[in-house]
Every structure is written in structure tokens, then in C-alpha cells.
Amino acid sequence: MTATAPIRGEAPALVARDGQAPRPDSVPIDAPLALRGVTVSYGDRPAVFSVDATFPSRAMAAIVGPNGAGKSTLLKAALGVIPRLSGEVHVYGQPIDQARARIAYVPQRASVDWDFPTTALDVVRMGLYRRVGLFGRMSGAMTDRARACLDRVGMADFGNRQIGQLSGGQQQRVFLARALAQDADLYLLDEPFAGVDAATERAMIDVLHGLKASGKAVVAVHHDLATVRDYFDHVFLINVRRIAEGPVASTFTAANLQATYGGRLAATHLDTLDLATAAP
Ligand code: ADP
Ligand code: MG
Q: What class has domain 29-271?
């Protein structure tokens, strides 16, 4: 048999689907979250400068850096909720503006107004607002779904409690339940374990590892260097600029941490972290 001639009218291989511009080669097509050259500034000084990052699928990734390093700003830029001076954000290969529905976000607890008069169940139902449009109103099935998500984080008995009357750990669980209700593919969390007790931290980690096991991607700002190795697969070290990024096993090194924290970590502290040795 002779080689088959190209079928007339077949689309050339390089034409982008959906009429979109072809993606830059450097953006992995399947990465849950990819940032390229992202700069965010609140005034004269950039909070995040020219950051490239690629967060892997089916993984737990930590964003680590000192206070004021731009970690929360990076997450907000990844969500597309603050203006970027420059740069691109892609979620599963799509520009962020087309992909927001695939992301769930748990904000830093300190940034939330807890006096807002609303119940725990209402907070979770807010996670379902994108679905409300389908029915025009909050259906009973959606309330059931919200209750099931509260149950998954051990808060089934607290649905009618005012959010401001819950402990810090309980509030974090409710916000995780809201993220679960969204049934997203990518979960962004800003210091989810800050100010929570050990039992809540364990419960939340179990839920997050369950998300990973079901094929989701998790990216969390994480302040506790001692648990990075236990909890996470991938680490992104930032101090306004990207310092290092990669698998925890090869990237979470003393040298990278000192570069991130400006040499301010005590050697005795580093000794307790069971760090990877620098790659050859
Ligand atoms: P991190 O989460 O790593 O502690 P942030 O992203 O919150 O850091 O902040 C990075 C820098 O940007 C800090 O210097 C902070 O003071 C500044 N910043 C954060 N949010 C704002 C804002 N809304 N307006 C002005 N400056 C801000
Ligand atoms: Mg922060």
C-alpha cells in the first residue's frame, strides 16, 4: 500500500482549537495552574515580580516565603481577582478569564469579616452560587449538597450557627466546606492551617489529600516549614521573585530556604526540618 495522501480540507495540526491564539510553548497544556511573567504592584513597589510558576496536577503544592513575600498576592493573581501589571495566568491550559469556574478559593482567615451576619450553612451555599443560575434559585438539593460538604469537614452539627460565633478552626472548616461545594478542579488555599488546632489541621489535610486522590490539584500558602515534607509534593519558594520551584524532595533545601528568607533562618531551626540535600 502507498502512504495515504493528506485528506483535503483536514485542519493543519498547528491551528488552535476554538479559534484561540496558540498557547505559548512554555505553558504546559495540562498544568492546573501556570503563571508566566506575572507582576503585581499595589504602588511603586512590586509585591510579586515577574513570576513564572507551574503547579502540577494530582498534587499538593505549597507556596512558602516570609511575611510580605507576596504569597497572598500571588494567589489572588492566580484567581484573576487583582489586576496584573504584566503576565499570563493559565488554568488547565485556558486563560484565567475563561477558567474561573474551575477554581475554588479559601481566603486567609484574617482577611474575612467574621461579624458578617450569616450562618455556616449560608457560607457553604454561597459556594454554589454558580449553579444557582441553572435553577434560578437555591434548590433543596443544593442545600442538601451544602450540608453534605459540612459533614465532610466534621461540621454537620453547626450549619445554623452564626459564622462569627465559631472558633477559628471551625471557621476554617466551614470555608473548606464551601470550597468543596464548588466541586472545582483546582483548590487555592491561603494559610488554611493558621490558628487552627491539631485535630482540625489533621481533618483538613485528610480532606485535601482526598481531593488529590480524586485527581484534583491543591495549592496552599503554607507557613509551617516543619510540615512541608509531610503534607506536600511540590513547593514554590517566593520572596517577591520566584526563588525555586519543584518537587519537595529536591527543592526544599537549606540553601533554597536561606535564599527565600534572606539568610534569617537559624541553623538550629533548619536542622529540625529533615531537609533535602541540594541537587548535584
Ligand atoms: P504575604 O501573603 O506573603 O504575607 P502579601 O501578598 O499579603 O504577602 O503582601 C505582599 C506585599 O504587598 C506586602 O508588602 C504588603 O504590605 C503589600 N500589600 C498587600 N496587599 C496590599 C494592598 N491591598 N494594598 C497595598 N499593599 C498591599
Ligand atoms: Mg498572606
A: alpha beta
